[in-house]
Amino acid sequence: MVTQEAGPLAGRVVLDLSRVLAGPWAGQLLADLGARVIKIERPGSGDDTRGWGPPWLEGENDLREAAYYLCANRGKQSLAVDLTQPRGQALVRELAERADIVLENFKVGGLKRYGLDYAGLKARNPRLIGCSITGFGQDGPYAHRPGYDFMIQALGGLMSVTGEVEGMPMKVGVALTDILTGLYATIGVLAALDERERTGLGRHVDVALLDVQVATLANQALNALVSGRDPQRQGNAHPNIVPYQAFACADGYLVLTVGNDAQFARLAGLLGQPQWASDPHYATNGARVSHRDSLVPLIAAQLLTRSRNEWLAEFEALGIPAGPINTISEALNDPQIRHREMVTHLERDGLRIPQVANPLRFDGESRTSRQPPPTLGQDSDAILTEMGLSTADIAQLREQGIIN
After folding, report:
1. Which neighbouring-strand residues pair with 131?
2. Of 159, 170, 251, 259, which is closest to residue 213 (Cα–Cα)?
3. In this predicted model, what pLDDT tens digit does every residue of 122-148 receive, in sequence order?
4. Phi, psi angles (nearest 5°) of residue 28
């Protein structure tokens, strides 16, 4: 058995029956916080994302691991067990009797046929907390449909406000809905865990990608509800703040994010146009939003006269929020990111596995598990031995194809 790491959730046991990103992201976060997370995978193939490459991290003995899988599965143990076989189902039920939390993202009703649905598991362990992550939730006219991040970004309205004004609606460059769903799932699980301390009983958390997508439209959703009009794509501009967008400089691009009128006054002075700060068309943010079509071209013309780094230095000196538009590699090598040790690596059998750290810190210490993402079925024998199975029992299960 892997030694339990210290952390706020030390001693808690999580069964992670989820695949791809939203569920595994929640499982990884719980592992980072100190929980013991047992990842249940299909023998032979495992989590879908194990095959989502290139790029691959190459190891010994022809081992290839997809970068996608490695981003969401550190801190876990892997038990490869066939849930379609009664003996495999019995093993998972036994683990659930000892667990605190079970995460799953099967289609609605998908686990019931195996006797592994939350109601069935809770009957054997009333303290168990269940979390089901689906595309559309446990009820409603779409509940039976599969849901993927890209489709949900489209259906949930996010793509309609992403992209250039005259261009095609665009998705966000990462599976943001999945990530946010994983975060909401974690919040729900932790709230249920806190409640259990008072009641002694677990409960079921139902998290839907579509619900999360709509909830996180934030100001854009309220813009629509308050105005009665659909927000439109504005490229890199902001619907409620001006100037708050990307601009071209003489040699590159930057983002200027003026958040209040005092910052705008300093910007106006820097650009040699101090009268803007008292002009009724531009003096307040509301006025600037109403007159963005005249103001933004004036700012853009000024910024084209000097290099990006020259402007950034001037903005920083005056406390005007701005930043360069970095590539991902540039962002990962930024001095602040490096100082905060957001880029790290884990070791497994001499293989260096790069990771992006958990951003949470407790008392100044990063909460990033030092346990690398497991290979498929890596911990099957250890977990089953801990459950009381003999070497002969485990060999028989393997021969029958129940475990991997």
Report:
1. 103, 205
2. 159
3. 999 999 999 999 999 999 999 999 999
4. -65, -40
pLDDT in tens, 134-185: 999 999 999 999 999 999 999 999 999 999 999 999 999 999 999 999 999 9
Active site (annotated) includes residue 178: yes
For 231, other C-beta atoms within 10 Å of its C-beta total 18
DSSP string, 7-41: STTTT-EEEE---TTHHHHHHHHHHHTT-EEEEEE
**pTM flag (> 0.90):** yes
Q: Catalytic one among 32, 178, 211, 379?
A: 178
CA proximity to 384, closest of 396, 372, 400: 396
**And the tokens for 14?**
């999580």
Give the tokens for residue 91. 């093993």
Helix (H, G, I), strand (E, B) or coil at 78: strand
387: phi > 0 → left, psi -120 to 50 → alpha, else beta; which? alpha
Measured in whole angstroms, how far is the alpha carbon of residue 307 from the centre of its chain? 35
CA distances from 376 to 76, 379, 381, 404 (A): 11, 8, 12, 8
pLDDT in tens, 58-114: 887 778 899 999 999 999 999 999 999 999 999 999 999 999 999 999 999 999 999
402 with 87: CB under 8 angstroms? yes
